[in-house]
Write a structure and sequence with these properties.
The protein is α/β, with parallel strands linked by helices. The protein has helices spanning 8-20, 42-52, 143-153, and strands at residues 2-5, 30-35, 67-72, 75-81, 104-109, 123-129, 134-139. The radius of gyration is 14 Å and the shape is globular.
């Protein structure tokens, strides 16, 4: 599935749609991996996602904190930016394995930096900046991801 976003607000709206289409609770954390170059809109999409679930504060890129956690009632969003990881095994030091449980959704920017240490994505979201718009491509490599995408069309 491919979406075109002509503004930051449209990218946030795409994130909000993904949040509203979340599948029912699963025993493991849902994995949404965000791919794209610097400035492609990964954090902007994450902002729309978190705010659509009821967070009213400022959603910033966790570039320096590495992980931000948003407890939003029945759902906890774990937003991680792995850009600053020097080697994949550093992923383990973040303590995210303790948050790999039902009711949690992981939004992971720069997932390739964690290599095999990161659980597989349910949804891969690839963002690309173009001169007049951003393209957002969604791919679902798991059954849960396919269900998630089907809810976007409902």
């Amino acid at each position: 599935m491919r979406v075109t976003a002509a503004s930051a607000e449209a990218t946030e709206a795409c994130g909000a749609r993904l949040a509203r289409a979340l599948p029912a609770a699963h025993p493991q954390a849902l994995q949404l991996h965000l791919h794209g170059d610097l400035g492609a809109g990964k954090t902007t999409l994450a902002r729309g996602f978190v705010q659509a679930l009821g967070y009213s504060g400022v959603v910033r890129s966790p570039t320096y904190t590495l992980v931000e956690i948003y407890a939003l009632g029945a759902i906890t969003v774990v937003h991680a930016d792995l850009y600053r990881l020097q080697a994949a095994p550093e992923f383990e030091t973040l303590g995210l394995r303790d948050l790999a449980m039902g009711g949690h959704v992981w939004l992971i920017e720069w997932p390739e930096r964690a290599g095999p240490w990161l659980p597989a994505a349910d949804l891969n979201v690839t963002l690309q900046a173009h001169p007049a718009f951003h393209s957002i491509e969604l791919q679902a490599p798991t059954a849960v991801g396919l269900q998630w995408l089907s809810y976007l069309h409902a």
